[in-house]
Amino acid sequence: MTIYALSSGPGISGVAVIRISGKQTSKVIKLLTGKKLPNPRVATLRKINKINTSELIDQGVILWFPGPQSYTGEDMAEIQVHGSKAVIDALHSSISKIENCRLAEPGEFTKLAFQNGKMNLLKAESVADLISSETEIQRQQAIRIMNGKSANEFNLLRERILKILSHVEAKIDFPDEDLPNDILDEIKLSSNEVIKKITKILNDQKVGERIREGFKIAILGPTNAGKSSLLNHLSNRDVAIVSEIAGTTRDVIETHLNIDGYPVIVSDTAGIRDSKDEIEKKGIKLSLNRAEEADLKLIVVDVENLDFTDVLKGLLEENAILVINKSDLLQKDIDPNIKKINHVLISIKENENIDELILKIKNKLKNKFITSDDILITRERHRQHLQQSLDHLNNFNKKKEIEDFDKAAEDLRLATRHLGMIVGKVDVEEILGSIFNDFCIGK
Questions:
Q1: Which end of the chain, N or C, is surrounded by fewer C-beta atoms within 10 Å?
Q2: Pairing, β 215-220 against β 253-259
Q3: Angle in degrees, CA 325, 269, 254, rounded to 5
Q4: pLDDT tens for residues 236-252?
Q5: 399-424 pLDDT, tens per residue?
Q6: Mind listing the domains of the chain with CATH numbers?
Q7: At CA 173, angle to CA 171 and CA 175, rounded to 5?
Q8: How far apart, in whole angstroms, are the C-alpha atoms of residue 443 and residue 434?
Q9: Rounded average pLDDT over 293-319
């Protein structure tokens, strides 16, 4: 089938780009323009008509990319027209009337590029990450992955395991012949080096995933302490309802922020207190769950009520900043024991010391987002396959020690398979759907 879709963003714009890929691409261009194909990779101005009529849709630029020298590896074209809904709809309608042409599914152009060997799976995923990047650090990470360093690293590890496997299989095929000692030493050395390398990659504090998905900050604390007001203040808009009535927030409210180029997801949670209301109790349970998932907790309390429950004390133990709100109501010094805790005294109402709180958050972000060219894992999928590969290598080492070479060889095969699944070196059809469904249509 030949696929087509709007590749530029939806909505009214100066220019819209419709992308076409497949065997019928040349036929589509000829039918729409009534002329022969333009020169490859040369922007050519043409009148674009409705199929089988002389009615003009628009005048636009056509770019013709014969396969395999195209993004998808197939015959491909891009039509640039004025970006009105009427023009786009008319052009889509005309293409749909051509036999074997259909609207593309999300990510289908990039999926074709992967299947036709134009890119590996990591690069395909990084294309999606680049399109959805909202901060500079996300853009930089996507570009690094696109440049191929991660894929090269995983391929190198896979090749080293394959080399170990070839030596082990030699021992299986010729059981009566002793392998030279240097070969046995090399098997042991190489397997240990690969294990160390994968272990180091996995011990990355999940920086790559944090950059891609966002640093998670949970705002927690008792009712009426100012949690929702703080969320609205950080967001510069009314994200959450603010009320004097205790327990207004029942569910978790999230907003995505960009703090100095760092992607952040801030969650406002239900106030933590003893409650008999079933809905509020569920909200409090969600709050505690979100606290466990958070990279940083902002524990917001009222300056007039600094008696912490055991639950709040537990939340302050790790990765937390105590935010003492309503400093404008402070009438006496804060308890010296509370002063020892990492805290900020603020007044959201009077806009006091908010900058100090944001500075503390920034410092936490900088410590968590220590970026380097060594970031290789950006998705949970990568992490799972690496961990499984490591498990099989460790199993190989155990079996090798007792010279159970047949079973040891199978562990090596499984280790290489999981590394191959990351870059798409083996059959990955079962995961392609979940990967490319995250793309926008037209890419």
A1: N
A2: unpaired
A3: 105
A4: 766 544 444 444 444 57
A5: 766 566 677 788 988 999 999 999 88
A6: 2-104 (3.30.1360.120), 125-204+376-436 (1.20.120.430), 213-362 (3.40.50.300)
A7: 55
A8: 15
A9: 79
